[in-house]
Amino acid sequence: MRQSYLVTYDISDPKRLARVARVCEDHGDRIQNSVFECRLTPSDVIRLRARLERTIDRAEDQVLIVRMGDGTERLESLGRAYEPLDRVAIIV
């Protein structure tokens, strides 16, 4: 069964950026420059993750893979760790 995923990335090197974009294009539809919507089976997710892991520099780059839509949303980070924003709204 296919599941919806949102894949987004922040890649520091232009050559790796192009390679990561090509990998994502093979698996889904571009929504914005570095954001893709992908409909993937469990084995598709494994293949996508493996290709991305071989492409990125884990110390410099970050790819976020977010499972969507079934009430069990989950965020996975490849490369740099995901650090949620801890912001407080300031009303002036």
Overview of this structure, please?
With about 90 residues, this protein is of the alpha+beta class. The protein has a single domain, classed as Alpha-Beta Plaits, CATH 3.30.70.240. It is built from two helices and five strands. Helix 1 (about 15-25) packs antiparallel against helix 2 (about 40-55). The mean pLDDT is about 85.
Q: What tags apply to this protein structure?
A:
five-stranded antiparallel β-sheet, alpha+beta, globular, Alpha-Beta Plaits
Weakly predicted, low-confidence segments: none
Strand proportion, as a percent range, falls in 25-35%
- Main β-sheet, spatial strand arrangement: 2-3-1-4-5
Count of distinct strands: 5
* CATH fold assignment: Alpha-Beta Plaits
Query: What is the H/E order?
Result: EHEEHEE
Which structural class matches the secondary elements?
alpha+beta
- State the helix count: 2
How can the largest sheet be summarized? 5 strands, antiparallel
| CATH class bucket | Alpha Beta
What overall form do the CA principal axes indicate? globular
